[in-house]
Write a structure and sequence with these properties.
The chain is an all-alpha fold. It has one domain: Helix Hairpins (Orthogonal Bundle), CATH 1.10.287.1700. It is 93% helix and 0% strand. It holds the Pfam family YscO. Keywords: Coiled coil. It comes from Pseudothauera rhizosphaerae.
Length: 165
């Protein structure tokens, strides 16, 4: 096997590795998108629930006589709802960042794959050119051999006057 064929095998291997990397990055991106959607859904769901909770707490306070301590507890409960909401927002932002990073890794992997494919295609062209040159050289040698055989035969015929074939 020629050196170009060996190099072509290497380029094909690199292209396959790059293709597998793209596939892995696609799966990682899909997972990151799913986690982002889950985090967004959790935040939306929690916001709806916390609004209802807050309304219920205020309604309960408005229906009865309350002490200052009850108002302080209400304020703390509402604050806890807000803290939980901020935590869920932080999780969502983290998931968005992870999705962005996964998307960038996929773009990078696609670029590596594109370059590996281009290099492989160039080597395929080189191998084809080399194969064509080898074929043409072989045909040329065959033609030269045939011409030599014809010339020898012609000389024999010329010297021998027709000789025995």
């Amino acid at each position: 096997m020629s050196m170009l064929h060996e190099l072509l095998r290497l380029k094909e291997h690199r292209e396959n590795k790059a293709e597998m990397a793209v596939s892995g990055c696609r799966m990682a991106l899909a997972e990151a998108v799913q986690q982002e959607e889950t985090a967004r859904g959790s935040l939306v769901e929690y916001r709806h629930w916390s609004v209802e909770q807050e309304r219920g707490m205020y309604a309960a306070v408005c229906r009865r006589v309350v002490r200052a301590r009850d108002l302080e507890w209400l304020r703390e409960d509402v604050l806890m709802l807000r803290v939980k909401e901020r935590d869920l927002e932080d999780v969502l932002h983290q998931r968005e960042k992870q999705r962005d990073e996964a998307d960038h890794r996929l773009q990078d992997a696609r670029e590596v794959h594109r370059l590996a494919s281009r290099v492989k295609e160039k080597f395929i062209q080189l191998v084809e050119v080399q194969s064509e040159e080898i074929r043409l050289e072989s045909e040329r040698k065959e033609d030269v051999e045939m011409e030599d055989l014809y010339a020898v035969r012609k000389e024999r015929e010329d010297w021998g006057g027709g000789g025995d074939d």
